[in-house]
Amino acid sequence: MKKLIALVAVVAMFAAFSISTVGKKLPSVGYVLVGPKTDGGWSMRHYQGFMSLEKHGYNVGGV
Question: Taking Cα atoms as reference points, which of 31, 32, 21 lies closest to residue 60?
Fold first, then answer.
């Protein structure tokens, strides 16, 4: 019974958030890298991820 209640709560939460974003513009995203974007590790992968967001229409800005 607890699993069913938890499932219903999760479905309701996702439904509420998906309905509230219909027809609205995408949010702006900002980031701060801890190293150079060409370091071959953490910073590079995050930079690539943010560039992917930009391709999908997000307003992305970095420092």
Answer: 31
